[in-house]
Amino acid sequence: MHPAGSAAGTPRQRKGPSKRRIPVSHLGMADPHQLFDDTSSAQSQGYGAQRGPSGLGYPTASASPQAAFLADPVSNMAMAYGSSLAAQGKELVDKNIDRFIPVTKLKYYFAVDTLYVGKKLGLLFFPYLHQDWEVQYQQDTPVAPRFDVNAPDLYIPAMAFITYVLVAGLALGTQDRFSPDLLGLQASSALAWLTLEVLAILLSLYLVTVNTDLTTIDLVAFLGYKYVGMIGGILMGLLFGKIGYYLVLGWCCMSIFVFMIRTLRLKILAEAAAEGVPVRGARNQLRMYLTMAVAAAQPLFMYWLTFHLVR
Amino acid sequence: MNETDLAGPILFCVALGATLLLVKDSSIRFKRVSFPMWFLQSALETQNAAGKVQFGYIYGMSAIGCIGIYALLNLMSSSGVSYGCVASVLGYCLLPMVILSGSAVFFSLQGTIGTVLALVIIVWCSLSASKIFISALDMEGQQLLVAYPCALLYGLFALLTVF
Predict the structure, then answer these.
(1) Domain boundaries, chain A
(2) Taking every annotated instance into account, which residue ranges of this chain make up the domain Yip1 (chain B) (predicted)?
(3) B3 occurs within a structural domain
């Protein structure tokens, strides 16, 4: 083997292992180091390469035991049509789901872990000692809830809502007022109140012309945190009667009030006011009133949605 | 985990239904009847039993629960999961519930020991289901978070068994 041939041969040798991926037209080239043309392997590889790119929907008929059945061209076509139809259907569903429900945005709110949930629940019941309420940013996007306890998430509100509906059913059951329709009624009425609240706050934010980065999903997350306190109140009411219910509900109302004020202050009010310096001005006062109103509405809703469950 | 297998779950659901019918029947009457007559009678009795939650609601709620867990797992995991996989894992982990309803034949579950047993079985079912999910979907630090909705779902089944 003379050096020129070997030098010319090395680039082709590197192409050697990828022979299966080259198209049909280039299969005439054989490895120059071989003493004879290896037509058998080239042909089978060529055959494989030919069928590979074009036959994605086709099964490997020569290898499978159902060769006789699948070698039949009609059933081949039927399988190809069926699988392409299924793929199209799946694509259609995915595209439409993505249009109505922003799945990638929602995934951010579910990137939680057990430690975050524990810390957040502690914060919801006792927010008085927490100092830093600012969400950390990482190159212009907020950090995932997993890494910052101040970031809003949707796992806790969603689980709290479902647990509230089930606990409400349990409470009604102990009063012998349970029927499965009532469960659905509780769920839809709570959902309706939540939607109403979100729309009212969005409307008032629009009227006050606040430039915030508070998205709708963020707002839903914040408004969903009150269900945790409601569950606590109902469970205490079931165990210890009205006294327990009022005590725990009162505590949770105070905590949610402080939590909402401290969280929304950073989102709605201007940066100067958020740092603690009271800025006098009509706009800031209006924003302050809006924050107080939103925070004060939470205990009201908490009482309204639970008092009929505890007798 | 790519192969969804619903044979086991269906078998367990049938077993659960059978033991539940056995429970309801043994608490209602003790006459000696032929087996097909007993089956039909207990099926009709459970349908007519006043104040009891109908099976249709339970099936509907468990289907909604499965869809809910499918949505939650798709949102929480980095790789998606198919509905068949979720249904098959949840169905397989329903097996301890069959033990619970089987034990209901021998003693009533409405006392303290029944409640404790039901809670233990719910925790067992949901921990095993969440363990399978997090190992299949490669989610770290989220086992309790996945176990909680599974516990809610199995709690519904336990309510059906106990009451």
Answers:
(1) 157-307
(2) 3-160
(3) no
Specify the number of domains making up chain B: 1
Amino acid residing at A171: A
User: Which residue, among B94, B112, B79, B104, has the nearest Cα to B151 in the 3D structure?
Assistant: B94
Cα–Cα distance between A98 and A100 in angstroms, integer? 6
Q: Is the pTM of this model over 0.80?
A: no
Domain span at B101: 52-162
Residues of A in contact with B156 (CB under 8 A): 166
Quick check: A43 pLDDT over 80?
A: no
Report chain A residues whose CB lies below 8 A from the CB of B141: 113-115
Query: Measured between beta carbons, which residues in chain B are less than 8 angstroms from residue A166?
Result: 152, 155-156
Contacts of A103 in chain B (CB under 8 A): 74-75
Sign of the dihedral through C-alpha B16, B21, B26, B30: negative
Of B68, B142, B148, the CB nearest to A113: B142
| Angstroms from B142 CA to nearest CA on chain A | 5
What is the arithmetic mean of pLDDT over A257-264?
A: 91
| Banded model confidence at residue A63, pLDDT cuts 50, 70, 90 | low
Helix (H) or strand (E) holding B66: helix B55-76
Please tell me whether residue A41 adopts helix, strand or coil conformation: helix
In angstroms, rounded to a whole number, what is the distance separating the alpha carbons of residues B161 and B157? 6
For residue B65, give both structure tokens.
């629960």
Long-range contacts of B51-58 (CB under 8 A, 24+ apart): B52/B163, B53/A180, B53/B160, B53/B163, B54/A180, B57/A180, B58/B156, B58/B157, B58/B160
Domain assignment present for B42: no
Residue of A nearest to B74 (CA): A107
Kind plus residue range of the DSSP H or E element containing A142: strand A141-142
